[in-house]
Design brief:
This protein is an all-alpha fold and 305 residues long. It folds into 2 domains: 99 residues, no CATH class; 198 residues, no CATH class. The protein is built from 13 helices and 2 strands. It is globular, with a radius of gyration of 20 Å.
Amino acid sequence: MNSRVTIKSKSAVKPKQILDSSELKTLNARSNWRGLWQFTGHLGVMLGSGYLWATVDNWIVKIPALIIYGFTLAVMFAPLHESSHRTAFANNHLNDTVAWIAGLLSFYNSDFYRRYHKWHHRYAQVKDKDPELDDSKPSNFREYLIELSGFNWWIGKFKSHYKVATGKLEDYAYIAENARDEVIRSTRLQLAIYGIAIAVSLIFKQPWFLTLWLLPLAVGQPILRFILLAEHTGCTYNDNPLTNTRTTLTWFPLMLWNIPFHGSHHLYPSIPFHALPQAHQKLQKHFTLVEDGYIKVHRDIVANF
């Protein structure tokens, strides 16, 4: 694990001017082949572990396979996130296609999420503006365990998918009037695919929808919640990206799509995933919160209840 680097930000620093234009231009270079390599590897681990979970009778193999498969399903959030920024690939049609597929697998809708997440970046950690703050952070150990279980996430997803599919978008200010039909159609199509998958399972009298998607995703969600809870919890409630976001240095398996380099990502969201480690080396001294590992972060979260 990398050594901890926690350095207080300098008040004189103007966050968006830390990198000069030439440095940012180099880091901003998008790549189809890097994105395809990453996405193919992600799919390979998902399909391989899913095959073991579905076919092997030995539970010594089956349980680890389920955990890995579930995690790769849940963390399809990562290519969804990267492609929603349209930085995973140089081709925007490829970005949008991968985002939609990744959202389908991880129970997000990419057309909704792209607009929601753009608003989050615009108003990160600003109360009454950042849509992520609509879901309150845990303030005691009971709420913390419920949040990690994924229960709140499941309830939130069912509610938002239902509202969007039925055209009830009044609560979603980040969805512009001219984008509403597109988001509604996309969500309805996604729910229809789930419905078809359920129907196929019932026709063949097999628990495929449950065992190959719903159960593994439920198993993987707590791991993803554990990662995402570290991004802003305990950070400042203001518009300063040097203090309102946390980077967490961790082992390679959790560095999938480099999402733990969250401070660098929020400061410069135009930088694609494969350049975030390089950007972090240039930016780390300016951040208030660069933590050594998720265990450390969660110990601090619990200690501050």
